[in-house]
Amino acid sequence: MRIRSTLAFSDAKTNHDRCCASWARRDEFVRDERFTAADVEGLKANLLANAESLIKTRALTGKDIAEKLTVMLEYPGSGFSWRALEKDIEAVDRPEPGPALRSAYAAFRTAWLAMGEHDTSDAYTDAEATRLSGHVHSTLQSVFRAPCTTAGDVLVKSYAHLLWHATHTNTRDIRGTGTGSFFDIDLAGIDSDSLLTDDYYRAAYDDLDHSDLGACLLSTGRIDFDARSWLDRAESIGMSVTLIVRDGEKQRISIGMIDSDDERLQREERRLQRLMAFDHAARWAAVSGFVTDHRPELLCHANTAKLVAAHV
């Protein structure tokens, strides 16, 4: 990658290094009669505060993670939580895109969705379609121009390019079924002048489909897992979702299988299931919380005592 550190982490590291340099000179300050014991304590407090700030700053590259680990080890008795570092390492496994690509992609996603919704609306006009298409083209160029800082950035660029090339599955033929998506890629649309290029595009799709970041993009067009979007997509392809609540027990989510031989829908079903398997506890909690707060019709209250009695 061209950039080994994100701007936010680099700034946090610079601030911490500056505090370290000041703390290293504390003996000089102590000999200065204008410098009091309270000033020394202030230096120490400032050092710890900046160390904590650095530790809480997301580290998205291997270099930044190594820097954060070094800082963590410098303060063994500080009480700093290791969870921040664990999250950074988990993000590398996902992998996580950097802030520049996130911002550029967010603009592209908004433009892409607006164009798709206009293309399928009754208010469609050629003039507005041309304007929206131009905006999509501009935002897509911004995605391509953003420098890659992580492997996740490469995946986001690959997805955006493939979506532009092959377009989405909410085609005229599928639209009537309600199962189309503006973010899943129409494999039938992979058609270039080169069979080898087409093989590459299909391989890229498969790579995206089997990474958590790519699966989120293909399912909901989002970089991060979103409970509402996941549920909307599941229901649109016929996956029933029920939150079972039993007295004295943890809530459980029941996910039904789709009744379809359509390979596209089966592929989406498997993808949505994989999304729930990744970071399983957190995502199931997110979906459970969303259903509880916003979709009470999906709640199923089961009295455990009555169920036991019925089987005695």
Number of beta-strand segments: 3
Shape estimate: globular
Supply the number of helical segments: 15
Taken in chain order, the helices and strands follow as HHHHHHHHHHHHEEHHEH
User: Residue-averaged pLDDT, rounded?
Assistant: 90
Rg is: 25 Å
Please report the distance between the alpha carbons of the first and last residues: 65 Å
In percent, how much strand structure appears in the residues? under 5%
The major pleated sheet works out as: 3 strands, mixed
Strand pairing plus helix content: what structural class? mainly alpha
Identify low-pLDDT runs: 305-312
> Widest sheet: strand order?
2-1-3
Explained architecture:
It is a single chain. The chain has 312 residues and is mainly alpha-helical. The protein contains 15 helices and three strands. Helix 8 crosses helix 10 and helix 12 packs across helix 14 (280-294). The chain is globular. The chain starts with 6 loop residues before the first helix and ends with a helix.
How would you summarize this macromolecular structure in one to three sentences?
This protein has 312 residues and is mainly α. The chain has helices at 7-24, 26-30, 37-56, 62-74, 83-93, 99-119, 126-145, 151-166, 172-175, 195-209, 212-220, 227-236, 263-277, 280-294, 304-310, and strands at residues 241-246, 252-255, 299-302.
Give the SSE layout.
Blueprint: H1 7-24, H2 26-30, H3 37-56, H4 62-74, H5 83-93, H6 99-119, H7 126-145, H8 151-166, H9 172-175, H10 195-209, H11 212-220, H12 227-236, E1 241-246, E2 252-255, H13 263-277, H14 280-294, E3 299-302, H15 304-310
Parallel strand pairs: 1-3
Antiparallel strand pairs: 1-2
Helix pairs in contact: 1-3, 4-5, 6-7, 6-8, 8-10, 8-11, 11-13, 12-14
